[in-house]
Amino acid sequence: MHVLAGRVNAFGEVWSESRDYARQMCAIATGRPLLLVALVAHDLLVIHLASTVTRLLADLHAEIVGSRHAG
Questions:
Q1: Taking Cα atoms as reference points, which of 33, 60, 61, 57 lies closest to residue 47?
Q2: How far are the Cα atoms of 21, 34, 48, 68 from residue 58, in angstroms, in the given order?
Q3: pLDDT digits (tens, 9 = 90+) for 14-65
Q4: What is the top-level taxon of the source organism (predicted)?
Q5: What Å distances lie between residue 24 and 2, 4, 30, CA to CA?
Q6: How far apart are CA 21 and CA 42, in angstroms?
């Protein structure tokens, strides 16, 4: 996870130049899918690689399914 300050408007919208800036500042190659989360109250932009989100969700789902079978 990467966190950048600013670059988010009051509606939580992120402009394309912010995405490019975020990629550059975090050394993320162009073309890698990202999930950008605007935390407007804190004036922050949180950046997750989509592959990381996918892995975390798969782990969570496996844990949920495993706990149902354990009990």
A1: 33
A2: 29, 17, 15, 16
A3: 555 666 777 787 788 888 888 877 777 877 778 888 888 999 999 999 999 9
A4: Bacteria
A5: 12, 11, 9
A6: 19
What global pTM score does this model have? Answer: 0.54
Is the pLDDT reported for residue 6 higher than 70? Answer: no
Helix or strand run (H / E) with residue 7? none
Tokens of 17: 């130049």
Both tokens of residue 18?
């912010």
The residue segments making up the domain with residue 57 are 2-70
Three-state DSSP class for 56?
A: helix
Q: What is the CA radius of gyration of the chain?
A: 16
